[in-house]
Write a structure and sequence with these properties.
Largest sheet: 7 strands, mixed
Strand order of the largest sheet: 3-2-1-4-5-9-8
Distance between the termini: 40 Å
Radius of gyration: 16 Å
Helix content: 25-40%
Order of helices and strands: HHHEHEHEEHEEEHEEH
Structural class: alpha/beta
Number of strands: 9
Strand content: 25-35%
Number of helices: 8
Shape: globular
């Protein structure tokens, strides 16, 4: 993970410029429709703050975090509020959020640490809360373009989610990269809900 944070610190301005205008509206709306109006959202690895800003403008109470100090500073200017400088391993929220938006962020978590980190992420969700996350589609894990990537295929992702019995998989779909004109890059998108035991009784 540190390799990736170093990368984002060094290339923060370029990364900000390359990603801040990307259109994630369709995916964001799929997420928003599952949330209570004005709910609390954690933007996990917010990068440029692009999606945080969209969610804030839609009336949500957004907590944005990122592991890169440089990106935190750029994103906080962009969204007009503080961005917490925090790594995934430092997550310590207990059932606080109605939704967690982890767009192209958890993919920097190595397989050895993934289940531990994922458990922390799920703990942050309120019962009934919704998680969105995205990964590059494939079976590669290792350093690529100066950052660590942990890719997933559909079966591998289903296997992970099945280990966390408090989660219910809502939707799993593939999409092209919004930056990739040729369409070679494929992403795996995940929507899952934390079960609400009280409602199931």
């Amino acid at each position: 993970m540190l390799d990736s944070i170093d990368y984002y610190n060094k290339h923060a301005n370029l990364y900000f410029e390359n990603t801040v205008e990307l259109d994630m509206k369709d995916t964001l709306e799929k997420f928003i429709i599952l949330l209570p109006e004005g709910g609390e959202i954690l933007d996990l690895g917010c990068g440029s703050g692009r999606d945080s800003l969209y969610l804030i403008q839609k009336g949500f109470d957004v907590t944005a975090i990122d592991g890169s100090k440089e990106l935190c500073e750029l994103a906080s200017i962009h969204i007009g509020q503080d961005v917490l400088h925090m790594q995934f391993c430092e997550l310590d929220f207990d059932e606080v959020f109605d939704g967690i938006w982890a767009c192209a962020s958890l993919l920097h978590t190595a397989p050895d640490n993934f289940e531990e980190i994922f458990g922390k992420v799920i703990k942050c969700l309120k019962p009934g809360g919704v998680l969105y996350m995205s990964f590059k589609h494939g079976d590669f894990s290792g350093i690529r373009n100066g950052r660590y990537f942990n890719d997933f295929k559909t079966k591998g992702m289903k296997d992970i989610i099945n280990k966390f019995t408090e989660l219910e998989l809502l939707e799993l779909w593939k999409s092209p990269d919004v930056r990739d004109e040729k369409g070679d890059e494929v992403w795996l998108n995940v929507l899952a809900r934390k079960k609400d035991e009280e409602k199931q009784v």
